[in-house]
């Protein structure tokens, strides 16, 4: 299976009412050099300034980003290119990231290459350590910058550490 670590930035809490404005993904393997980055034009007039500020972009900048349909089609093409078999969506906060990616795939392309499920890195770590109060974020090497490629790469590094240091049985 091809594990693809995904991170997104959005200008609000839910898709359709608000917009995914940045999407990053990294194929999880020893190199972490297969990466995807897309900037998406807002699909709604609504946005929450504080949510948008996290991304570092202004509303005016986001209005010049790419058509979401093109970005999602490019992402689907990238996933097919880097996946030898079934792609597995994994993220730090899959409740949030998955919600946007799944909605955008179905809305703009008619299907989701990841299927109907996703994995949560934080929950995986909590299970491995048998402690619901533990956090994996110290395992990242790449700084968490809110650039979704940086954040996906840091999370992929943490997943690799779970394999190496915690004995996680996983194949890349």
From TrEMBL:
Q: Does the keyword Hydrolase apply?
A: yes
Q: Domain 3'-5' exoribonuclease Rv2179c-like: where?
A: 3-159
Q: Which keywords does this chain's UniProt record carry?
A: Exonuclease, Hydrolase, Nuclease
**SUPFAM superfamilies documented for this protein:** Ribonuclease H-like
Pfam families annotated for this entry?
A: Rv2179c-like (PF16473)
The answer to whether the entry has keyword Nuclease is yes
Molecular function GO terms recorded: exonuclease activity; nucleic acid binding
InterPro entries hit by this protein = RNaseH-like_sf, RNaseH_sf, Rv2179c-like
This protein is called: 3'-5' exoribonuclease domain-containing protein
Which species is this UniProt entry from?
Acinetobacter sichuanensis
